[in-house]
Amino acid sequence: MRAWTRRRRGAARAALELSIIAKPANPEPASSDVLIRVSHVALQFSSEGLFKLLPVLPFTYPPVPELEFSGTIVAAGDAAAADVRDTGTRVIAFVSIPDMILGRGALAEYVRVPSGNATRLAEDADMVAMAGVLGSGSTALKMLRVGGVRAGSRVLVNGASGSVGSLLVQLCKRRGVHVVAVASGGNEELVRGLGADEFIDYRMSNPLPDYLGPNYGNEPFDFVLDCVGLQALYTHSPSYLKPHGAVINVGSMEGVAATLWNWTTNTWCPIWLGGIPRQYIMFPTPPTKDDALMLVKMVEEGELKVAVDSVFEMEDAVQAYERVATKRARGRAVIRVERN
């Protein structure tokens, strides 16, 4: 089968190759696994940074990247979950983080996963949009849960037009939250259409923290939900964030290494040594079946819209990664894997 494999450390153009590798074996009769013919794969916003940071381990060679995808069941073990056991069932699915680290990722024509990692879709499901709902949606849901965001809260969503931010705005409004959204001016119509109550064009309010203090200091936020990863947004947060509020960050705009360093200092540096007197939260967000069921239901019932920035053919995956690397994508960049 065709698959993109990572041969070396570096940017996607230098690190990735379109290869022919062995197709996963059909699940054994007693197995709970399913074999899925991949339709579309949604790229993670952190992939490019990880390609540059992480070496290729010899025992994973050649590793296949990516985490979440849509597709069709082609084979299943007898112990597979009943909702995804039948051949021809449309699903969204995810590869576990350990499997992806070991090189068994999703950017291939066929992927084998435990049936608990797959969730059934309706026959008329949009396979492009659904490929990108799980990772971003799980992240957005966890941001709300960890922070305890509830009706009546005032939140700032930084990066509101991106893959996580666009879903986060909608989930906040579904909870009765007042949302102040930050994105580029060209995305104002999109973000307001998702339900944002107020809009800030970061290009006209640069640096952003200097704008927020004078304009929101008298009505400070309960939470700053940062989908970009702007350290200055936390550093200056006392001027626009309530004393018991929190900055919840899932972005890595300044690079993976810098993000890890910021997390360490933001979390552990005491106030008397120059630490910021506001809570800082950052966490891993592996997808779960429960989140998948909830997100699929909301999309199918029209309560949640998945923003798709662009769709690339399998052969053009490098261009897709370069699009994500610009940090200007309006929603998910998706690769069409299944041949027409």
Description:
The protein has 340 residues and is α/β, with parallel strands linked by helices. It folds into 2 domains: 2-132 and 307-336, Quinone Oxidoreductase, Chain A, domain 1, CATH 3.90.180.10; 136-281, Rossmann fold (3-Layer(aba) Sandwich), CATH 3.40.50. Helix content is 30%, strand content 25%. It contains 12 helices and 15 strands. The protein has helices at residues 12-15, 47-53, 97-101, 127-130, 133-147, 163-174, 188-193, 208-216, 231-235, 256-268, 289-300, 317-325, and strands at 2-6, 16-20, 33-42, 68-76, 90-94, 110-114, 118-120, 154-158, 178-183, 198-201, 221-226, 241-249, 279-281, 308-313, 332-336. Strands 3, 4, 5, 6, 7, 14 and 15 form a 7-stranded mixed beta sheet that branches. Strands 10-9-8-11-12-13 form a 6-stranded parallel beta sheet. It has a two-stranded antiparallel sheet with strand order 1-2. Helix 10 (256-268) links the parallel strand 12 (241-249) and strand 13. Helix 5 (133-147) packs across helix 6. The two termini are 15 Å apart. The model has no long low-confidence stretch (mean pLDDT 93).
